[in-house]
Design brief:
Layout: E1 4-10, H1 17-30, E2 34-39, H2 52-63, E3 69-72, H3 75-78, H4 85-100, E4 105-111, H5 112-115, H6 127-130, E5 132-136, H7 150-158, E6 174-177, H8 186-194, H9 208-216
Helix pairs in contact: 2-9
The structure holds adenosine-5'-triphosphate and nicotinate mononucleotide.
């Protein structure tokens, strides 16, 4: 079996339990051993609150102690400009091919909200030549019906396979985790933190070390 690397890109402003669950779900479904977490400089969102370095630090804290290998990959923030997933996947192919073999499976993870917008991504059809796409359900965003642009639905459905088949080939398929149901967003967490009226408990939407970091760095205050 070739090496299978899962990729989770995001703004992570801040990273939360939905991101951690998204990574863990596909690690389990695909039987993968490695997750790369890639903080981005998004071209479709204006002004994030935390700096790129702070978002990378929080990503490392959120995934510390997972029972699989996690690498926080700084390539997008190191570019120092808004970036596109297609260029990151090309760079990863160039990096990992010589290291792990050209057959290495790359699996890009996303929530249903991003599938609904996939046709707005730079050169989105090229993504399938570079990686598999793994999409998880997210409360408030459907995985089919009129919310998915027709061209995306056709491309995505035509490539759909069972998750356990993905790691045996390098790219070109899709899979779904229909059971994920984590009703959390970074936007809501920023609002919650700005309210100033919070305390950590086991039901909190972010890992405790991330909340500690946010407090130490005085982030997301009004
Ligand atoms: N609760 C969730 N369930 C499933 N996927 C999620 C969830 N939250 C985020 N994701 C996915 O993680 C990736 C990165 O998300 P991002 O960092 O933009 O978080 P967000 O909560 O969507 O942020 P914001 O509220 O600021 O837009 C995206 O592919 C997104 O779809
Ligand atoms: O390549 C693109 O054009 C593109 C457009 C929107 C989002 N993305 C990627 O999707 C991931 C989630 O982004 P976001 O904005 O939801 O945090 C992250 O890796 C982004 O780089 C990529």
């Amino acid at each position: 079996m070739p090496r299978c690397v899962l990729l989770l890109g995001g703004s992570f402003d801040p990273i939360h339990n939905g991101h951690v669950a998204l990574g863990a779900t596909f690690v389990r479904l695909l039987g993968a051993a490695e997750l790369r977490v890639i903080p981005t400089v998004p071209w479709q969102k204006s002004s994030l609150v935390a700096t790129p370095s702070q978002r990378a630090d929080m990503a490392a804290l959120a995934f510390a102690g997972q029972p699989y290998r996690v690498v926080v990959d700084r390539q997008e923030i190191d570019r120092g400009r808004p970036t596109y997933t297609v260029e990151t996947l090309r760079a990863l192919r160039a990096e990992l091919g010589p290291k792990y073999g050209e057959e290495t499976a790359l699996c890009f993870l996303m929530g249903a909200d991003q599938l609904q917008r996939l046709d707005t991504w730079r050169d989105w059809r090229e993504l399938f030549g570079l990686a598999h796409l793994c999409v998880a359900a997210r409360p408030g965003f459907s995985l089919d019906g009129p919310d998915i642009p027709a061209a995306v639905a056709a491309e995505f459905r035509g490539r759909l396979v069972a998750p356990e088949q993905l790691c045996s080939r390098p790219a070109g398929n899709t899979c779904i985790a229909a059971d994920l149901a984590v009703d959390i967003s970074s936007t809501r967490i920023r609002q919650w933190l700005a309210g100033g009226n919070y305390e950590y408990d086991s039901g909190s939407p972010i890992p405790a070390p991330v909340l500690d970091y946010i407090e130490q760095h005085n982030l997301y205050k009004k």
